[in-house]
């Protein structure tokens, strides 16, 4: 009996202890959980408060009406010359761009929200993008005038450059057609360089927000990271070739090794060109370059230390004509300050799209305005006249078999990869022919002396 009562007492003590322990543990757990929940809840509220996007009633309709009255109404506030200065192009060209974008790009099409309120107009969106490209300002610089926030302006810029590339890139970043080549050859002959189709050089665009891991690769002697643009420009400042993306540590020769500038010739997709200099016939057009470029058959440099009047005259004429590409770079940077100022973007693809869109817009402006400033009249080079020494094969078409296939006249052999690679190697050898370069340069020296030497003697 005594033993049984003792066991009962011990069991009741254990139950009481377990109950007390459970209550204390539950109370402590509830307090800790409440404390953690309150702290976590405060953090979430703070995070939501920080992430909450501020909304401002900007009255975008007022901005659209002001823009219309200032530039696009029948009686605009500002005259055409101020429109040309601020939009970098004439009004009819800008309206053509706006019309194409609003018809073919969904982002620029007018919409209505759930309340029936009209969205930003295509004019507002395109004007915001043009102002950022032209002046290189921050994204919120157009907020007070056009009533667009910084985020919306960046979105307009990205869609604008994408639309320009997709709608106009094929036409205004094209390779020269046979008609284009003939015009360039005629102008080159008029200026004393038969067979010359332009000048080539590189420029650097500073990349301010280059990723830290890439800075060593993109930083040149100036101590700032840059991206290289290789371009070919003609007398009217049209940019025919643009290769953008190599890091700034590369010089012009390294960029040339990566460049596709001669791919059309190597692949047999370039029109056949024939011209004569000093009584000799040549079949490869060439570019004027500075002294860093290699001595290839497709490059003609100046003479660093000219000896004699013929060499001096050639150096003067070559250095004058070669400045076409330098002038094109200067005009491109003057028109679009975003290219002149250090780029603030970190995405290299977006930077590439911006430079391509600026070049396309530049070429559109050149096409629209070059008749007003071109100093050369090609009417003297009418087809069939004996004064023309440069000829282009107008039967060439990009839809025709390549020139390599025409030379062989055997279509089946093009299927043989080894023969095709051999032909490409042969084309590269022709392009890099140093002996042809020396012969062409000597003939050009004589040709320029015969053409302009008498004027120098008279002076």
Automatic annotation (TrEMBL):
Name any one Pfam family assigned in the record. Plant_tran
Q: Which domain of life is it from?
A: Eukaryota
InterPro entries given in the database record: Harbinger_derived_prot
What name does UniProt use for this protein?
A: DDE Tnp4 domain-containing protein
Which organism was this protein described from? Brassica oleracea var. oleracea
């Amino acid at each position: 009996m005594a033993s049984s009562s003792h066991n009962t007492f011990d069991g009741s003590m254990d139950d009481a202890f377990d109950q007390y322990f459970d209550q204390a543990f539950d109370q402590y757990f509830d307090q800790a959980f409440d404390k953690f929940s309150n702290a976590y809840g405060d953090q979430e509220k703070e995070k939501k408060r920080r992430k909450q996007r501020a909304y401002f009633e900007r009255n975008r309709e007022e901005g659209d009406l002001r823009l219309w009255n200032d530039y696009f109404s029948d009686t605009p506030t500002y005259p055409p010359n101020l429109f040309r200065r601020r939009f970098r192009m004439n009004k009819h060209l800008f309206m053509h761009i706006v019309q194409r974008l609003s018809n073919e790009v969904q982002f620029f099409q007018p919409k209505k929200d759930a309340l029936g309120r009209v969205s930003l107009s295509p004019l507002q969106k395109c004007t915001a993008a043009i102002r950022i490209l032209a002046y290189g300002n921050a994204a919120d610089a157009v907020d007070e005038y056009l009533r667009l926030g910084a985020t919306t302006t960046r979105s307009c810029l990205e869609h604008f450059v994408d639309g320009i590339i997709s709608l106009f890139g094929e036409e205004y970043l094209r390779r020269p057609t046979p008609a284009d080549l003939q015009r360039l050859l005629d102008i080159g002959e008029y200026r004393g360089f038969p067979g010359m189709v332009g000048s080539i050089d590189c420029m650097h665009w500073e990349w301010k927000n280059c990723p830290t891991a890439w800075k060593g690769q993109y930083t040149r002697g100036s101590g700032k990271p840059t991206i290289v643009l290789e371009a070919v420009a003609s007398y009217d400042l049209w940019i025919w070739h643009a290769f953008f993306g190599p890091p700034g540590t590369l010089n012009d020769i390294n960029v040339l090794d990566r460049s596709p500038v001669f791919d059309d010739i190597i692949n047999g997709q370039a029109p056949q060109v024939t011209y004569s200099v000093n009584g000799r016939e040549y079949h490869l057009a060439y570019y004027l370059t500075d002294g860093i470029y290699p001595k290839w058959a497709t490059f003609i440099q100046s003479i660093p230390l000219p000896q004699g009047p013929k060499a001096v005259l050639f150096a003067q004429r070559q250095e004058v004509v070669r400045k076409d590409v330098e002038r094109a770079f200067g005009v491109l940077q003057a028109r679009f300050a975003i290219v002149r100022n250090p780029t603030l973007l970190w995405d290299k693809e977006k930077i590439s799209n911006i430079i391509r869109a600026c070049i396309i817009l530049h070429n559109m402006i050149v096409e629209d305005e070059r008749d007003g400033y071109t100093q050369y009249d090609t009417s003297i080079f009418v087809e069939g006249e004996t004064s023309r020494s440069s000829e282009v094969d107008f039967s060439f078409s990009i839809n025709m078999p390549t020139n390599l296939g025409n030379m062989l006249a055997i279509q089946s052999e093009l299927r043989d990869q080894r023969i095709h690679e051999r032909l490409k190697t042969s084309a590269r050898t022709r392009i890099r022919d140093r002996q042809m370069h020396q012969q062409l340069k000597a003939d050009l020296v004589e040709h320029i002396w015969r053409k302009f030497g008498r004027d120098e003697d008279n002076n």
